[in-house]
Amino acid sequence: MSEKFIQLMIIVLTLSACNKASQNTEVIPESELNLTKIDSLNTNFEVENYIRKVNSRYKEFELRRIQDFDRGYKSDSLTKKMANQLKITKAFYKTDFDNNGFTDILVIGDNKDCFGETSCSFNSMVLMNFDNDSIKVIDVVKDHSTSIVPVIEKENGQSFLIINTPNQINYKNEKYRDETIDKLIYKYGSFIEVNANPITHNIETIEYSTGPCYGTCPIFQLHIDADKSATFNAGLYNFDKNHDLFNPNGDRTFKTKLSNEKYQEIIELINYLDFENLKNNYWVDWTDDQSCTLKIVYDGGKVKLIKDYGLIGTYGLTRLYELLFELRFNQDWQELTTSNNNSQN
Q1: pTM
Q2: In angstroms, rounded to a whole number, what is the distance separating the alpha carbons of residues 293 and 307?
Q3: Among 10, 52, 107, 234, which residue has the fewest nearby CB atoms (within 10 Å)?
Q4: Are the C-beta atoms of residues 294 and 185 closer than 8 Å to each other?
């Protein structure tokens, strides 16, 4: 038997063995493990249509580069300059903000949701992508008239959202708000300011109350104790998520024991916000908006009181307010009778 024939037989046997092994082992390319619809979106047209289908609130949404906004706002020229400096020249960017293996998408555009003969909106949202193509849309612009430059920044495998807001200039060419940079992380169901070293405090009570606005803003008070017992005093516009139900019978009081899940989420978020060092007062630059008051008693009787006209003091506070608002609908509240109310006083 020749040496060449032996070598040929060895090669044939080796290939045969490899073929059998490949038949018994399923190889799944890593890039295909968590592909969803967002991964297939490559053009502005595709992204735009996808957003309109995902959420009816954005059925008018149009993608737009920052450089293409022409609203006549004094601050927009600063935003365009900032965008050029930061090399933000597209209307959408992709990343995985929460490291769940699904691609999220950051978009910039105009949702046409302000009043006027010409569009005056500036919108930027993140479509958070979860399993089974479940999408959560999160606005990252506090005021839809204020233009921003959102930037994705990666550090040690974590994606952060950097919100750059230029100096705000009024029609008289006067600066009324300084330039800001907010570094946000996706936690507790939204984007909030990063806190590299959160401190755990002993939260004893939480009190939250809202005031009226020019419209149907829910007016209510919440009191939450450390044992998870809670009281909800419902004033106006509280019993429908669309805020269109007026309560002609005056205040109604409810009590419950908060679920451990919701209570812990609220407590952990409060601690993560570094609430001790937040401002005591926040306010927006317009009128007829809603106000709220947050009182936190902690660490043996210390008190932190925050008043917020407009309810958008910080990204983290906005998320906390959302969780407190949601308690009205996601807990098993039991209404107190008139006699019970009298005995409480």
Answers
A1: 0.85
A2: 5
A3: 10
A4: no
Tell me the pairing of strands 92-95 and 62-63.
Answer: unpaired
300 and 273 Cβ atoms separated by less than 8 Å: no
Instruction: Return the CATH number of the domain spanning residue range 203-344.
Output: 3.30.1560
Q: What is the tens place of the pLDDT at every residue in 261-320?
A: 999 999 999 999 999 999 999 999 888 999 999 999 999 999 999 999 999 999 999 999
| Rounded CA separation 105/136 (Å) | 11
Tokens read off for 3? 């040496």
Domain residue extents for the chain:
37-193, 203-344
How do residues 9-37 score in pLDDT, each as one tens digit?
Answer: 544 444 444 444 333 333 333 334 478 99
Amino acid at 150: P
d(CA 184, CA 224): 28
